[in-house]
Amino acid sequence: MKGLLAFLLILVTALCEAQDLNNYKYVIVDNQYDFQQEPNEYRLNEMMVFEIKKREISAFLADDVLPNDLNETGCNALSLKVETRSGLRVKMIFEFVNCNGITVFETKEGIGRTKNFEKAYREAIRDAMTSLDGLNYSYAASLDGRPSGIETPIQVMQPSAVKPSLEITPSNGVEKDEPQTIPRPEMVELIDDEVYTTNSKEYKIQSTDSGYNVYKNNSLIGTLKKSASGCYLTVTTEFIGIGYKKENTIIIEYDKNGTQFLVFQKK
Length: 267
What we know:
The chain is an alpha+beta fold. The protein has 3 helices and 16 strands. Strands 9-10-11-12-13-14-15-16 form an 8-stranded antiparallel β-barrel. Strands 1, 2, 3, 4, 5 and 6 form a 6-stranded mixed sheet that branches. Strand 10 and strand 11 form a beta hairpin. Keywords: Signal.
C-alpha cells in the first residue's frame, strides 16, 4: 500500500509540474553560468537550448534575437538555472524559474561519468533533460481574461519539414498558394569547390545563402541554418542536431541511439 501511495504521489507531482510548465511559452538560457570560465564554454549553453527544443519547447540563448511577445503582457518565459557539483562525477540539476523567482519545474540530477570534463558535462545535460520526456508539453495561453497582445509565432522545425516547395498557379489573375509539401529527394550535381563530404562520400554538404544543404548520395535530405550564437541547427529527414564549423571542417552532433557525429571535410 505504501508503495502504491508513493507511486501516486510521484504521478500527481509530475502531472502538476507539467501543467505548470504548459503555462509558459519560452525558456531563456543564460550565455554563461557560474561553473563556466567564458560564455558558452564547450558550447554547453547551445546544447541546453537544443535539448529543450527537442522536447518542442521554444528556447533561446539570452543574446539571441528574442520574440516580440516575451513577457509583453505577463510572465510567459522561464529562466533556466543550473546547479552543478563536480568531483569524481559531474552532477547537474536544472531549474525552470518564472519571473517571480518561483521554480516551476526541476529536473532530476543528471550525472556525467566520463573523466573528460567537457564530455561529462554533456552527459549530465542529456541525463538531466530526460526529465522533460513524457510531460507532453503544450503551451496553454493564460485564460485570466487579460489581453494577450500580438504574439510572434515560433516555428519548431521537425525532421519532415525540409525545404518545402511552393507552387503558384495563376487563377483569374490571382496567384494561389498551394499547401506546402515535402519534396521528393532531389538529385543534384554538386559544385566541387562548395562541397564538404564525409570520408565515406555518403553524405555531402553544399553552401547556400542561408547556410548549407545536406545531401545523402546526392539526394537532398535537410539543411543547416546558422544561429545567432554561431552554430548550425541541423534538421534532416534522418536526424536533428547541431553543427560546428572549424576551418575546413564541419562537425554535426546528433542524438540517435546515443551521441553520433558526422565529420565533413572541404573537398
